[in-house]
Amino acid sequence: MAIGYLTVQAWIANGARPVAGVRVRVMDDQGRRLYSMTTNENGETPLVSLETVDASLSRNPGYVGTPYVSYQVYAQAEGFEPLLAEGIPIYEGETAVLPMQLIPLQAMQPREGGVETIASEEPAVAHGGSGQQQGPAIAPIVLRQVVIPKTITVHLGSPSSPAANVRVSFPDYVKNAASSEIYPTWPDAALRANIYAIITFALNRIYTEWYRGQGYDFDITGSTAYDQAFVYGRATYESINKIVDEIFDHYIRRAGQYAPYFTAFCNGTTVTCTGLSQWGTVTLANQGYTPIEILRAYYPDDIEIAQAQAVADTAGSYPGTPLRVGSAGLDVQTVQTYLNRIRRNYPGIPAITDPDGVFGASTREAVRKFQSIFNLSADGVVGKATWYQLSRIYTAVTRLAELDSEGTSLGIGTVPPSAVLRQGSRGNDVLTLQYLLNLVSEYYPGFWGVAQDGIFGADTRRAVVAFQQAQSLNPDGIVGPATWQALYDVYLGIQGIRPPAEPDDGYFTYTVRSGDTLWLLARRYGTTVDEIRRLNGLTGDMLRIGQVLRIPG
């Protein structure tokens, strides 16, 4: 038998905190136990080898069998819902990476109960793939700029079905869709051509507001009858993940246009269409075609690969050139600041002892460990993929810290407020409601945050209705005793799985906003301009928006 590999990663809040001590069992498709493991301090299990079939079968469009072997993974940890992932395909020579987003138990929920099951992960290409995507050849332009979104909201069914919505980062969506649509054993050029098409199809849905313009509250579906395959919680593959990390901000467009082209595709064997043939890309790649040549074989000759104008909601923009040993300056200091903060949540990342702004050996080792944890090439160089992953995780961990601070300042205890709130309500109880909704959105997929302004508006009502529906409450958008109690049960469940407070290292990080000056920051936080300069290696008074500073705390 051939051999493939599997590793499991357990975390909460979109990767903001790993979960150590999770008991993981790997089983065959009959439920027989093969491995028992426990996650380490970074939420990782060891890499295990699993028997599978020869990789050549997954490269042969005429093969009618299953070109992989499927396995199951069961994960359980105190204070969390148990998870069962079924139908995980293992391919020869490929490493499957299974992210398990653990869900906290509610405070009043019994510890025994059902197991949340992740659906089968069989690739769509094996069953006819996509090919029924709906949309014009050139979709109408609604939004003006092509910016890679921070997250994308996926409806886990056909558009009008009552299926759940989940919110995932855009690169993670692409990794999932690619792992669901194609085989990771395909030639590199075929993988890249398909991934460009998958990225562009999703961006077309977002930037034409295809579903939101019809009144839906999501960007795309996971149904191959309408869009491209997506299986929430599925395993992805290192060969696919590395390509996505490299090109997630590139898309296909017509020459002279900005809109993402409508990149329809199908598997090209059991289903044919006027767009890209997934199996056809393998044939062309084997003939030596490059990714752009493959794409032009199916789409107009004037298509080109363009880079999006920006990546939305990142803590800082990529400086444009890789950072490595010997680099120095503000961008290196930003990387060090990100790593030092992330290290509090991921203690396996080694401490940085290099001077601020100097990329030395200890910075390289911290970068390498971060890359290893988040499935990047562990070369110790901060290229685009590593920069944006650092930014994403830094944003996630600092968001949790901000929520902790907000919860403390609001004085939330264990007894819900007695006020009945509805659209139009205002005041401190609305602030408490909005805080709880924001906290829930970090830990539970399918929810979204709201502006914390003390005003019960339409967005707050929609978030309340979504929460009520998930809790099997009357979805009337009114926050009465039952909804308050459910919110507090979830809140107390989250509190029960939080780690102890991190030790104070003498400063906190601050991201510069429009209008900030050193004098204003010094006055606001009770320090001096000279102290801020000293901590950050500044020689003048110039600040840039998005710059990360150390502030004495």
Task: Provide structural commentary.
- The chain is an alpha/beta fold and 553 residues long.
- The protein folds into four domains: 2-122, Immunoglobulin-like (Sandwich); 126-311, no CATH class; 411-496, Muramoyl-pentapeptide Carboxypeptidase, domain 1, CATH 1.10.101; 504-553, Membrane-bound Lytic Murein Transglycosylase D, Chain A (Roll), CATH 3.10.350.10.
- Helices cover 32% and strands 18% of the residues.
- It has 13 helices and 21 strands.
- It has helices at residues 170-181, 188-207, 238-247, 278-286, 291-298, 330-345, 361-373, 384-410, 428-443, 458-470, 481-496, 518-524, 529-536; strands at residues 2-12, 17-18, 23-28, 33-38, 48-52, 69-76, 83-90, 95-101, 116-118, 147-148, 151-155, 165-169, 220-221, 236-237, 250-254, 265-266, 276-277, 303-307, 310-311, 507-511, 548-552.
- The strands form seven sheets. Strands 1, 2, 5, 8 and 14 form a five-stranded mixed β-sheet that branches.
- Strand 6 (69-76) and strand 7 (83-90) form a beta hairpin.
- Helix 8 (384-410) runs antiparallel to helix 9 and helix 12 (518-524) packs across helix 13 (529-536).
- The longest helix has 27 residues, at 384-410.
- The termini are far apart.
- Residues 108-113, 137-143 and 500-504 have low confidence and may be disordered.
Our count of domains comes out at 4
Number of helices: 13
Kindly state the mean pLDDT as a whole number?
87
Q: What fraction of the residues are assigned to beta strands by DSSP?
A: 15-25%
Q: Structural class of the helix and strand makeup?
A: alpha/beta
Assign a percent range to the helix content.
25-40%
Largest sheet: 5 strands, mixed
What is the CA-CA span between the terminal residues? 58 Å
Overall number of strands: 21
Shape: globular
- How much is the radius of gyration in Å? 24 Å
Q: Return residue spans where pLDDT drops below 50 for at least 5 consecutive residues.
A: 108-113, 137-143, 500-504
